[in-house]
Design a protein that fits this description.
The protein is α/β, with parallel strands linked by helices and 635 residues long. The chain has 19 helices and 21 strands. It has 3 domains: 137 residues, no CATH class; 296 residues, FAD/NAD(P)-binding domain (3-Layer(bba) Sandwich); 158 residues, FAD/NAD(P)-binding domain (3-Layer(bba) Sandwich), CATH 3.50.50. The chain has a 5-stranded parallel β-sheet with strand order 3-2-1-7-19, with helices on one face.
């Protein structure tokens, strides 16, 4: 126990606790299984987060936890061993469901009761002699995935260099400065599994806290000192004769150099290249105009007439922030987002909760486990398409329809005094068809302000002093802000990659339809790996950090395979690549985001879903545990 507390301080802390997680921690501390014999928590979309437990039951848990914590402080409390059968009972209880057997290895790893980092490499490059020590890897990007890759390569003793175009680490959390920028995953889940943060200031942390976390982690593991900042990759060319990648790098002064690497890992992300709408007159606007991802530090919007184009995730966050300051705000909407009720979206994490995470043994692990399970595949079935569905086109199945009606009613309730607004903000496409957003009421409240107008009439042109819509109405504007997303489907668009026989990745291979095996590798591009690549985005189930941890484990496994088998190169077999992508395409066709008539950034210009993973998370976890040499052509 790091900080002792008085009885009253512990009581106050327990008032902020997630009680089911306290129940599980008490089993470790007391060995008392009585909680497991009662009714398990029952969670729903609009519940209290405590699983509907009765007040009497909650009071009993708090009283027992108080006593256990007081005894722990005095040193009279011991920990009780938990066998696998009991652990499974505990996981089922806190989940409020029977976790399928195929999920259990994944869930045990994520729970990590023993504190072991199961994804840490268990090998060292030096173990394989010259075949291991000759490895030299280039990591492109020092955001979340790049930092993670560097940590794992350090742990495996693999030589690497890491470059980033920016002046610091952090990726998207360094670049995005717009007001209200924050994560839409719970903070305690949006962290490396091996590097928890018990001091998150908010349940859904803002950009500053997230940047601080990744900056601190990079410093702790000695990564930041190794990053070559301000360095951009111009191109990477495979040298088949010497089995190396020759990469041209441009430094901040504009000077270029070519360096050889045995493998390349792209960690450049998807959501960092702003996309602007193709509107006549866009370049003629006289006032300040910018994309939300390039928010000027010195912009002053007070008293200005502002036009915001787009109502995606970024606009959803910054519009409520700027609305009180501007003279007038026009919000131009093409399609509304689905709003997911999240009352604590802007709430601070209480000091009592922070204290419990640090001081109640096992509580932090069960709390994270609970969030992981409820967000993993808890909503997955609700966005699956039923091929026999004959209901309205606003849903893709009975469960999807039920979820849609629940969410629509929640929005309708917020618009009770503005029924005209409800018709504009309730989507007509299925829930899951596009990215949904976290809702605690501030979006609808902003749209209802007297100085805000939601415009659904399509834009036809931009003029120097305003925006013209199809009905011929011109609305004047002093400032124009684009919340129009990114070139998400144009993966790795900032540099060229030339594989076997000089074929260029974008122009000769992908041709606007990016694909990769497990999102990471493709035929004829040996020893080249992509993180957050094609079909590794997730819509409703989980955190992207989970996917990155799985992918990085797989990449590090491939590097071990090169060293262990004394290979120079591996590239995925064409038939393995083709079979995987056929399965992914079929899977996406059965999800809400693959539904016909639903357009979103999940689909590329060909209409194919190039972004999303269509299967449960456990399938990706299993597929990336360890690479199979038979899947690759090796030299």
């Amino acid at each position: 126990m790091s900080v002792e507390a008085t009885r009253s301080q512990i009581e106050a802390a327990l008032n902020e606790a997630h009680i089911p997680s306290v129940m599980m921690a008490l089993i470790h501390l007391t060995g008392d299984l009585s909680d497991l014999n009662g009714e398990p928590p029952v969670y729903d979309f609009f519940g209290d987060g405590q699983g509907g437990l009765s007040a009497e039951r909650i009071a009993s848990v708090k009283a027992r936890a108080l006593q256990a914590l007081l005894e722990a402080q005095s040193g009279t409390r011991t920990h009780h061993p938990i066998d696998e059968a009991l652990l499974q009972r505990m996981m089922n209880f806190i989940a409020g469901a029977t976790i399928p057997d195929r999920y259990l290895p994944l869930m045990v790893e994520e729970l990590s009761v023993d504190g072991v980092d199961a994804k840490r490499p268990t090998w060292r490059a030096a173990d394989y002699g010259e075949a291991g020590t000759r490895l030299k890897v280039l990591i492109i990007g020092a955001g979340m995935s790049g930092i993670l890759t560097a940590i794992r390569l350090d742990q495996a003793g693999v030589a690497y260099e890491i470059v980033d175009k920016n002046p610091d680490v952090g990726g998207t959390w360094l670049e995005n400065l717009y007001p209200g920028c924050r994560v839409d995953n719970p903070s305690h889940l949006y962290a490396y599994s091996f590097e928890p943060n018990h001091d998150w200031p908010n349940h859904y942390s803002d950009r500053n806290a997230l940047f601080a976390y990744f900056h601190k982690t990079a410093e702790k593991y000695g990564i930041r000192a190794k990053v070559q900042f301000g360095v951009q990759v111009q191109d990477a060319r495979w040298d088949a004769k010497h089995h190396l990648w020759r990469v041209t790098l441009r430094d901040p002064s504009g000077q270029t150099r070519t360096v050889a690497y045995s493998a390349v890992v792209s960690a450049v992300g998807q959501l960092n290249q702003p996309r602007y709408p193709d509107l006549p007159g866009r370049e003629d606007f006289a006032g300040p105009s910018f994309h939300s991802a390039r928010w000027p530090k010195d912009i002053d919007l007070k008293g200005k007439r502002v036009a915001v184009i787009g109502t995606g995730a970024s606009a959803f966050q910054f519009v409520p922030e700027i609305a009180p300051d501007v003279a007038h705000l026009d919000v131009y909407q093409r399609t509304p987002p689905w709003l997911g009720p999240t009352p604590n979206y802007h709430e601070a994490v209480g000091e009592g909760q922070k204290w419990l995470l640090k001081n109640l043994p096992y509580y932090d692990r069960w709390y994270r486990f609970w969030m992981f399970w409820t967000m993993t595949d808890g909503i997955y079935d609700f966005v699956k398409a039923d091929p026999d569905w004959t209901g309205p086109s606003t849903a893709v199945g009975e469960m999807n329809h039920m979820l849609r009606e629940m969410l629509a009613e929640a929005i309708r309730t917020q618009c009770a005094d503005r029924p005209d607004l409800a018709d504009k903000v309730i989507p007509t496409y299925p829930m899951g068809g596009k990215r949904s957003v976290r809702d605690n009421g501030v979006w609808i409240a902003a749209l209802k302000r007297d100085n805000v107008e939601l415009v659904t009439d399509p834009i036809v042109s931009i003029e120097p002093d305003g925006v013209v819509t199809r009905e011929g109405v011109k609305r004047s504007a002093d400032v124009l802000i684009y919340g129009t997303g990114f070139h998400a489907s144009d993966f790795l668009r900032t540099f060229k990659v030339y594989g076997v026989e000089g074929r260029e990745l974008h122009s000769d291979v992908w041709k606007g339809d990016a694909r990769a095996y497990l999102g990471m590798t493709l035929p004829d591009f040996p020893n080249f790996f992509i993180l957050y690549g094609p079909n590794t985005n997730i819509v409703v189930n989980g955190s992207i950090i989970f996917f990155s941890e799985c992918s990085v484990r797989y990449v590090v496994g491939c590097l071990e395979m090169l060293a262990k088998e004394k290979l120079h190169s591996i590239s995925v077999r064409p038939e393995v690549f083709a079979r995987f992508n056929a399965e992914v395409d079929e899977g996406n066709s059965k999800m809400a985001w693959g539904a016909k008539g639903v357009n979103s950034w999940y689909k590329n210009a060909t209409g194919r879903v190039s972004q999303n993973w269509p299967f449960p998370l456990v399938d990706y976890w299993n597929a990336t545990l360890k690479p199979n040499l038979a899947d690759f052509i090796s030299t």
